Amino acid sequence: MTAREISRHPQQVAPRTWHCGTLTYTKATLVSLFVFLLVGSLSFNLMMMVIPSILPLKLKALGASDVLIGLLLTSIFPMFGMFISPYLSFKSDYLRTRWGRRKPFFFVTLPFVTLSIVLLAFSEDIARYLHVSGVLAALTPAGAAVLLVSTCIVLFQFSDVVIASVYIYIFNDTVPVALSGRFFGLMQMVTASLGFLYNYFIFQYAESHMREIFLGVAAVYFVGIGLLCIFVREGEYPPVTGEDEQKTRGFAGLKTFFRESFSHKFYWTKFAYAISPALAAAMWPFEIFFYREMGLTLDYVGKTGAIVALAAMVAAYFASIFIDRWHPLRILAYSAVFAALLSLGNWVWLFVTLPPKAFFWLQMLGGALIGVFHAALCNVATVPLDMRLLPRSRYGQFCSAQSIVTNVMKMIAGVLVGGFFYILKTLFFNGSDFAYRLNFLWTATASIAMGCVIVSLYRQWLALGGDRQFSPPAPWSEEGREEMDRPGFVGTQVRWLKYALAMISVVMVCDAVLVVSVAAWLWVHGWSDALRVYLLALIPFSALLIFCWFRLRRRILLSVGDSLAGRTPRDGIPHHGVLFVKSCVLLLGVLVKVGFVVVAIHNGLHTGVIVFGLSALIIDLGVIAAVAILCRIERGYDPLLDYDGRKTAAESAANVIEEPVAQPV
Asked: Residue 480 region, left (φ>0) first, then alpha (ψ -120 to 50), else beta?
């Protein structure tokens, strides 16, 4: 058939559709799905953002100890979750109702969560009434308030854990896999915009208007989750067979749960890595006290959170584009390696105290904004990681098994962090809040441990097929694995890898120039002690780092040449994605390093000049070590240089010639 003949018989082009299980979406229905899921997400995240951010301040104002704060805000919730979440998650996988298998849990918990927030809003008033009426007369007014607030916190967390147990699963059941990265990017944008509005306009009133804030959160939560329940439709699932029903009842169900969930080393490693958010969250209630120790007001802290959230809102959308291209596991594994080796950076605050305004602009705002895209990339990748690694048929079950591990660690970590600061303040700092400057010890320990775990997980994923062939292990099936959709991915792009290496080279040279320039200034102005340290230690150290870096860079480029020539590379070749993003962060970070040194000189901080110079070089050493480790973990696997699965799929589709339909004579 000629082109002219084809033009005489135009074919109807079917509207594009997307699928998730039995659900089929057009553009209009997909937009509707995203809108109501995002409304529900906004409501849930508002509750999870606002209440935990205010409660540490309230408990501290009432005289609660660090141990009690850590117990209430980081240990009680996971304790409930450890027992409740696995049961509800496991049962929800097998639940069959006309409303779906997840939404019934949203319906049931909605009034209880809302009521528990309202009780938190009036907890101090209730405590005052009970104390005056004689019910709590044996306690002091402050003690009665702490008791009532603590009780209300426990009630809130018990109600919240039920909805939190199944909340994330509805995204896996309704969002098409091909669009998961984009959806979670949009969700991150909504969360970031929410964070901006809250931190910029509301957080400064956290201590004075707690009641009004909590009541507003309760109203938004009730409306948002209610709309999600009404307008989001779940798909249909295969009926539960008699055999499956027997396997999920009582003790047999418990055996099935543990036998399937912990049946493979890959899942053990995945669950172990999942405790990293728990370790980070344990420190979160105490960060506000660190900022106060550094001289910042709540206004400074709120403004920083707002501005960074606004930047993250924009960054999240663009970051979501790369989630499926680079794979969420690779993104998080590479990022964890850098985090582990750069996590000790806050040691400088043991020796230096900057003016609050300088600390605000350089450390809190400057540092956070420079790293906002990388942070958004990691945040968006978190949920798609589970969707890409865990079996879809038992997604709730495996997520709940994972939650058992994370909740146990949250309970332990919350108490440990509270005890850590209690011991430091009691035994070493005579009650001073200077102890909060040692928060980097906890962060560094957690980052190094979790970096080792996710590197192991990444190597197992490569061994199980990697980008091209990975399927979740499924020992319960005859095939031994469960097939899954695989979006098009992008292999290591040589051009972008060379750009990343070049930018890191520029960073190394800039830091060396900074050290030499500062030494010259010290010589001119007679800062002899600092000059001696620069001449005898920092300048030789910077020269050694430059030598090590360019040697490592040469090895990587030689390996690239070997691979392009069809020879076996002498070393592993890191993927360009996260390396390019991190190199941009490091390049912009040179400005912050210069800023720290300038502020130290301007304020006459001799120790600060030495400390900031040494810190810049330690960061460079961490970067070299991180790139070397990335080369090591990629050794033995095909880097798929310049492969682009999206273009390959498009070319394949273009080469398919549709047979002409026979026309009636």
From this structure: left
Dist CA 461 CA 333 (whole Å): 11
Length of the chain: 665
| Pairwise CA distance, residues 342 & 344, whole Å | 6
Identify the H or E element spanning 23.
Answer: strand 23-25
CB 25 within 8 Å of CB 176? yes
Contact at 8 Å (CB) between 633 and 455?
A: yes
Q: Which uninterrupted H or E stretch holds 584?
A: helix 576-602
| 187 within 8 A of 74, measured Cβ to Cβ | no
Which residues of the chain are modeled with pLDDT < 50? 1-11, 649-650, 652-665
Structural domains in the chain, sorted by start: 18-234+266-480 (1.20.1250.20), 494-652 (no CATH)
Specify the 3-state DSSP secondary structure of 97: coil
pLDDT of residue 158: 84
Q: At what angle do helices 103-121 and 123-133 cross, to 10 degrees?
A: 50
Query: What's the alpha-carbon Rg for the chain, to the nearest Å?
Result: 28
CA distance between the termini of the chain: 15
Question: Would you state the pLDDT for residue 435?
Answer: 92
Identify any residues that bridge with 20 across adjacent strands, giving them in sequence order: 23
Interhelix angle 250-261/76-94, rounded to 10 degrees, is 100
Cα–Cα dist 644/325, whole Å: 9
Q: Could you identify the residue written with the tokens 């600390």? A: 359
Helix, coil or strand: residue 473: strand
420 neighbors 286 (Cβ within 8 angstroms): no
Closest by alpha carbon to 127, among 118, 135, 115? 135
Contact by Cβ (8 Å): 122, 211: yes
Sole residue written with tokens 């405790």: 275
The backbone region for 471, taken as left when phi is positive above 0, alpha when psi lies in -120 to 50, beta otherwise, is beta
Tokens of 155: 């009630």
Are the CB atoms for 333 and 230 separated by under 8 Å? Answer: no
Say what the pLDDT of residue 656 is: 39
| Distance in angstroms (rounded) separating the CA atoms of residues 514 and 98 | 67
DSSP per-residue codes, 205-222: GTTT-HHHHHHHHHHHHH
Q: Where are the beta strands (DSSP E) in 230-342?
A: none
Q: What is the per-residue pLDDT for 664?
A: 34
Q: Which residues, 6+ apart, have CB-to-CB distance to 104 below 8 Å?
A: 95, 97
> pTM surpassing 0.85?
no
Read off the tokens for 284: 């979160």
For position 10, what pLDDT does the model report? 47
Contact 310, 193 (CB under 8 A): yes
